[in-house]
Amino acid sequence: MPCGLFYIIESTMRLLRSLLHFFWMGLTVIPWALAVVVAAPFVSRDTVYKMCAGWLTLSVNSGTVLLGIHNRVSGMENLPTQKTSPAILLVKHQSTWETFSMVALMPHPLAFVFKRELLYIPFFGWAMGRMDMIHIDRSQRAQAFNKVVEQGKRLLARGTWVIMFPEGTRIPRGQKGNYKSGGARLAIETGAPVIPVAVTSAKCWPRKAFVKTPGVVDISIGKPISSVGRQPEELMREVQEWIEAEMHRLDPEAYR
């Protein structure tokens, strides 16, 4: 088969698979979100989380079946094992894929720190608003961080891990964003260790891309880093250095 024809067939298949996955996500998110919104006033927070985690896990599994994207996870042994052991996950952010995958993979409930504008997304945002997470108004920085600390302490005490993307937004493959110290500051305020996580999701699900590519996404979980007696910038610098070094190791082609 000529190379040009093979490329056309392969590109067409990727487009068709991406379309199928897009429609599958749209088809399932509406009844799921409505069920969460209706059930939330009558069930526990844990039940709401399980309902949401179920749909996110379904999304990851459908991504594997329909898109051919597979997770390869290393470092699970680095996660705390006690039921109420606190942890703040600081994760490399390249696409939507890791926001779904982290919930599906982690042995503890997760609470994302996110901008409140996401709550206005039809269906998906409505369901997120029923979860016990930390949504902030970025226009009020001081008050926003105080809210993060207050809610973070409460969530960590009940065994929920806080997850943050220190670069703040999705970063293109092979690039490094501006690591913000909010996650390190929260860890120091709460005494929780930080756990750095490197993710190569942009190999398969690039930032702002509709067409996805089959392949393997590496998710590497680092060892916990103590926040006791640390300065925010110093702690975040250590997190950044580990994540970026691990990204170079996992995806060397992107950094040539």
Note the run of SSEs as H and E.
HHEEHEHEHEHEEH
Q: Uncertain runs with pLDDT below 50, 5 residues or more?
A: none
Please tell me the total number of domains.
1
DSSP helical segment count: 7
Structural class from helices and strands? alpha/beta
Mean pLDDT: 90
Which percent range fits the helix content?
40-55%
Q: What share of the residues does DSSP label as strand, in percent?
A: 5-15%
CATH level 1 class label: Alpha Beta
- Computed over alpha carbons, the radius of gyration is 19 Å
Provide the spatial order of strands within the biggest beta sheet.
Answer: 1-7-6-2-5-3-4
State the total count of DSSP E strands: 7
CATH architecture: 3-Layer(aba) Sandwich
Distance between the termini: 31 Å
What is the fold-level CATH name, i.e. the topology? Glycerol-3-phosphate (1)-acyltransferase
Main beta sheet, described? 7 strands, mixed
Based on Cα principal axes, name the global outline: globular
Blueprint (SSEs and pairs):
Layout: H1 3-39, H2 45-67, E1 69-74, E2 88-91, H3 97-105, E3 110-115, H4 124-128, E4 134-136, H5 141-157, E5 161-164, H6 182-190, E6 194-199, E7 215-221, H7 232-250
Parallel strand pairs: 1-7, 2-5, 2-6, 3-4, 3-5
Antiparallel strand pairs: 6-7
Helix pairs in contact: 1-2, 2-3, 5-6, 6-7
